[in-house]
Structure formats: structure tokens, C-alpha cells
Amino acid sequence: MNINWYPGHMKKTRELLKEQLKLVDVVFELLDARIPLSSKNPMIDEIIGNKPKVVVLNKSDLANDNITRQWIDFYKAQGLKAIPMNTIEGKGLREVTIEAENAVKEKMEALKQKGRRSRAIRIMIVGIPNVGKSSIINRLAGKKSAKTGDRPGVTKGKQWIRLRGNMELLDTPGILWPKFEDEEVALNLAFTGAIKDEIMDTETLALKLIESLWRKEKEKVVERYKVEEELELPIEVMDRIAKNRGCIIGGGGINYTRTANMVLDEFRAGKIGKISLETPV
């Protein structure tokens, strides 16, 4: 599955991040808790350099809790604070606010000693498309400050947003990287909706997702779709799901498009279960 996607606005976003970084005190790097490795843009660390950083594992309500705890330990071993977040219920918001204050405490004290007037803590929030940046910003701001949507690319330009407490946040559009060398990374991003479905073959994508889930979380697929555990091939599982859910066309054939969209939608909504596609290596 060859995916090479780098629209012009992604290049502009990278230039924007570099340009605005000097105005920022701390960076929030948003990752999808289900796929922390695949949802990490490899260019981000290079761009932000030594700026203080807090890792936010968003959509933790959709991920396996035990595996998320493993990821927290994984980042802790690297000297990074990772905070699981669920914007639907507001979990993790207080923790990221505290971490932002801790990350810049020494800098703010130094400014105070120099006689400088105290100012708002300036935060940059970065992450790939559709990782939930706008939802987190709206929660932190306590109002609808940023556009939200379940389609990648809703946030278009730079904007400073005043948050509750003494903080300001620079929202930026999601940024992907020029080419996905690793097919598994590309697939994980597509499974979770970071890549627009319009540029994908959704039937093949859903089949790949079924293959991955059958290997990692078979019991959840069996429970959700009432399919037989003895099935071996992903296409057999997909056919059985289609028949059990009535995704049939005239003559008894399988409506693969309808089946594919259903499986993808239900996975992304967490209806198949709390599933993590990656574990710490």
C-alpha cells in the first residue's frame, strides 16, 4: 500500500513551527494513545530542539489501559512526562496544566528576579492531523476556541488562544511527513483516520485492519461481530462480518464498501473495544 502524502500546507506548517518556536515556553506533543509510535512525527524533535516538552497520549479512552500504562513508563525512562487524556470526559486536563507550569518554573523565576513583569506561559501544541488538538484546546480554554471535526485538516492557520489560568496557547495545523517508509506506520495512521479516507482504498484498508485485529485482539472481534474463532483468513472474517451485519447485495454477494466503512467507523469509535495497536519496544 503506497502512501505518499505531503500537501503544500504541510510544508508551510513546518516553516511556521520553526518561525514561532522562539515565542514559546513549552511544547505539548499530542500522540494517539493507540499508536504512539506511528502518530509521532519524526520531524518534531528536530524542530523543537531543547524546548521543554510534555507528551500527551490523547484518545486514551479508546486505548488499552494496561498498554497505556506501559507507554507512560516507556516515556518516563526517557525523562519525559506522558499524560493520558480523554477530552470527552476532560480527564488529564489538570495534569497537563500542572506540567506546563512545572516545565517553565525556573524560567519564570529568572524573569522575576530580573525585574521583568510576569506574563502568560506560552504553549505550542503540535501533532498529526485528527489527533484531537482542537478538542483539547477547547477544553483547556473552557470555550469553543478552535474548530473541531473528525476529518483531518480542519485547523488551517496559526492562532493564539487564551487559556484558563495564566497561559496562552499557539494552535497549529496538523503536520504529516513527506513519505511513509514503513507500511505499518502508514496503515496505523490510516486505521485511526489521520490520513483522509478519500485517498485510500477503504476496502483494502478495512481488510488490513481486520487482519491486524484478528492477530492482536481476536476475542474482541469475535465478541463484537459474532464470528467463529476458527476462521483463518482475513477475507473469511470480513465475509462473515458482512453476512452477520446484513451487508449483502443482490444475488447474495458481499457489499464490501459498506462492510469496510462499518468496520473502520466502529474501530475508530471504540465500539470494537479499547484497543492499542502498538506496544513499547
UniProtKB/TrEMBL annotation:
Its main location: cytoplasm. Residues 13-178 form the CP-type G domain. GO terms for cellular component: cytoplasm. InterPro entries: G_CP_dom, GTP-bd, GTP-bd_ortho_bundle_sf, GTP-bd_ribosome_bgen, GTPase_MTG1, P-loop_NTPase. The keyword Nucleotide-binding applies. One of its GO terms (biological process) is translation. It holds the Pfam family MMR_HSR1. Keywords: Cytoplasm, GTP-binding, Nucleotide-binding. GTP binds at residues 58-61, 130-135, 174. Gene3D superfamilies: 1.10.1580.10, P-loop containing nucleotide triphosphate hydrolases (3.40.50.300). It comes from the Bacteria. It is found in: Cytoplasm. GO terms for molecular function: GTP binding; GTPase activity. CDD domains: YlqF. NCBIfam families: GTPase_YlqF (TIGR03596). Required for a late step of 50S ribosomal subunit assembly. Has GTPase activity. PANTHER family: MITOCHONDRIAL RIBOSOME-ASSOCIATED GTPASE 1. Belongs to the TRAFAC class YlqF/YawG GTPase family. MTG1 subfamily. This is Ribosome biogenesis GTPase A. It comes from Clostridium formicaceticum. The lineage of its organism: Bacteria, Bacillati, Bacillota, Clostridia, Eubacteriales.
